[in-house]
Amino acid sequence: MKVVVDGHELDLPAGTSAIDAVFAAGRDVPYFCAHSYLSPVGACRMCLIESGSPRKNPDGTFVMEGEGDAAKPKIFWFPKPMAACTMQATEGMHIRTAATSEVVAKSQAGMMEFTLLNHPLDCPTCDKGGACELQDRAFEYGYGASRFGFDRRHADKHYPLSDFIILDQERCIHCKRCVRYFEEVPGQEVLDFIERGGHTFIDTEEGGLPVGFQGNIADICPVGALLDNVARFRGRNWEYDHNPTTCTLCPVGCSITVDARNGRLERIVAGENREVNEAWICDAGRFGHGFASEGRLTGPLVRVNGELRETTWDDAIAAMRQGLAYTNPADLGLYLGSDSTLEEGVALEALAGLLGTRSVDHWPRYPVGVNAPAATMTDVATADAVVILGADLGEEAPVLELRVMEMLRGGIIPPEFPHGTAIADLRLVERPARHPERLAVIGPDSRLAGHAGIRVTVERASGGDLLGALLNPRTDEARAVLKLLTDAKQPVVILGADVLNSPSGAFATQISDLAMRTGAKVLAIPAGPNSNGLSHLNLVPRMGGLGYARLSDAPAAFISRLDPGKRARGFTVVHDTHLTDTARLADVVLPAVTNYEKRGTIVNLEGRLLPLRQSALNAGEAADLTRTLAALAEALGVRTKVRGLKSAQALLRERLGVNVENLPESGVIQSLGQRHEAPTGLRHTPNLWTERMVPKPNPSSDPRHLTIDPRWELPMAGQPGGDD
Ligand code: SF4
Ligand code: SF4
Ligand code: FES
Fold first, then answer.
1. 217 C-alpha vs ligand 1 centroid, how far in Å?
2. How close is the Cα of 78 to the center of ligand 3, in Å?
């Protein structure tokens, strides 16, 4: 399809919206209400363009203008500028933007003036200042001067929609992004416009916003009307050090940007990864970061006369040398958390090999792996049938729940252009029709079960065999699930904690048989954020070794970022970010960095290798596991070949055949070969919001702290435009 934008002709796929045609041509048009993953509705009227198309005669030929060879189809222009986000570009269409059309430039400036009619200009105090689309676009496309000499609309400025989201009702420009987001993405109709005209405001039903995915509205609000209450008044946008990285609180591995200021983690916003989280993250990933800047261990501690005392790394190494002097290195248990990176895992594997210890483990993990074609997040979103077996996605992999919801509304994934994801995909519609018949849930109750056409309730407490309920169906519902899988062309089976925790002996074979029989792809949700990656390293108890469940029987142990609340029989070293219950029991405590401060690689639930990038947080002398293990090796008098990131990456290349240097932010799916599995002796209960993560209230955003000191109050009363 040929489209001409400001005189430049370009070739575009059929169905492209006019706004994407403009951006595909490298031109610009301002917009507030359009959003790549929401239905285009034309609410803000900012994306105005002039457009015209050729017209055909009754005989099918084009109406022409000009003579002879110079004749070309005549363009019939619409009499008024049109919103580009709701208009489809068509063959031969001509578009003029503000760059070439005075009519468009004037209409946009007029529209901007209209939008600003009731929008307070609190840019100097608004948290969105410096990142506000209205501010930027008013500068680029507005008149540049205000003609208003009257007091603007007033409404509630610190209106809490929930504990996490504060609404400034005056600043809302009624773009409807937040309302559409809740309806279309998590499928929760909880926000809407109340009242009419200039009195319109956004509000919730009684009860506020549901916790799960509410934070995303703070990202998409184009102005400072919806703000992250955990980060409010912590800093201005230009003061933050923005670090794009990967969330490692669950196995989804969403793209996030960590905003730090003065060494503190102040805010997390969603990044875009079309393949994984599109543009959304969950509330735990967004708001559960308080631990990264609160109560951190910043230096090593050693036990002296029964008490933990601050010390230096050198002295901590000396204490480990002394404490482990009479321990056979082969008896030292090595245990690491499953959010450790591949680099840290390979460092631990190397040290275990050097020491000859058989007591190695990572936690959480499940005792069995699945050997069936693995589904990606996009496979889930575009499947024609999804069966969820024993999973509570809200706890195990929240954003996967959004991709299932995307499947229910037709699995439309906006196309990608050189300018990025389509800004307005005209196939996305408001209040989309859902297809509950494509979703079956087997297992205990969960939020997603409410959207499923078929439900088979097998309570966790009853110890019911969930896979058995599917493979040997005894009820009409269970038979319907099997039929759904068999009839579908692209089915996906999602396996969660309730089936993966205690599989029968034949589990792996049964799953691969089921996949083969039905053509289904299988997405087994790993127990920990990087359990998938670590399972490819030999980090499970070897014959005769003590697993994590038996840590307290180990003669001595090194425990990294795990808090079982118990210690080994003998000398115990804990490497953690906080003084946990386990750290309090240790002989030596070594400070650890969080995953926000690491460079390294994790593997998400799809098998996608994703990079971690280091944010500028103040963690004192904290070190990652790779460097900490090098210190432990020094104390043990051995020379490990992994002493830092580079050597770990070189070993990973040797060990797994992967090059993890310079991974793209969106990651790559790559097979890592054989998995190492072993019984666990423990049941893993997914629990996303751990005690450490629960955000503390932000005192500076409590409206009671916002009362203005009378000394600083400006004498504005009675002045025209005084609230500006
Ligand atoms: S609160 Fe923000 S996102 Fe919601 S309608 Fe208003 S301006 Fe748009
Ligand atoms: S879904 Fe998982 S990876 Fe994504 S933001 Fe939430 S906790 Fe982080
Ligand atoms: S009308 Fe708002 S972006 Fe087009």
1. 8
2. 17
**Cβ–ligand 1 contact at 134 (below 6 Å):** no
Q: Distance, CA 705 to ligand 2 centroid (Å)?
A: 32
Ligand with an atom nearest the CA of residue 111: 3
Give me the percent of the chain exceeding a pLDDT of 90. Answer: 83
Of the pLDDT bands very low, low, confident and very high (cuts 50, 70, 90), residue 702 is: low
User: What is d(CA 538, CA 680) in angstroms, rounded to the nearest whole number?
Assistant: 14
pLDDT digits (tens, 9 = 90+) for 522-536: 999 999 999 999 999
Using an 8 Å Cβ cutoff, are 81 and 53 in contact?
no
| Closest ligand 3 atom, residue 31 Cα | 3
pLDDT in tens, 641-695: 999 999 999 999 999 999 999 899 999 999 999 999 999 999 999 999 888 888 7
Return the residue matching tokens 């430039």.
Answer: 105
SS3 assignment for 507-562: HHHHHHHHHHHHCCEEEECCCCCCHHHHCCCCCCCCCCCCCHHHHHHCCEEEEECC
Q: Which residue has 């895992």 as its token pair? A: 345
Q: In a mutational test of the pocket of ligand 2, which residue from 248, 399, 689 has the highest number of ligand atoms less than 8 Å from its CB?
A: 399
Q: Is residue 243 left, alpha or beta, with left meaning phi > 0 and alpha meaning psi from -120 to 50?
A: beta
Would you say the CB of residue 176 lies under 6 angstroms from ligand 1? yes
pLDDT, tens only, 75-90: 999 999 999 999 999 9
Contact 251, 528 (CB under 8 A): yes
pLDDT tens readout for residues 238-295: 999 999 999 999 999 999 999 999 999 999 999 999 999 999 999 999 999 999 999 9
Mean pLDDT of 500-513: 87
Atom of ligand 1 nearest to the CA of 181: 3
**SS3 of residue 712 by DSSP:** helix
- Which residues are CB-contacts of 559 (< 8 A; sequence separation ≥ 6)? 335, 551, 572, 573, 574, 575, 576, 582, 586
Alpha carbon distance 159, 107 (integer Å): 33
* 83 CB within 6 A, ligand 3: yes
Compute CA 545 distance to the chain's CA centroid, rounded to the nearest angstrom.
37
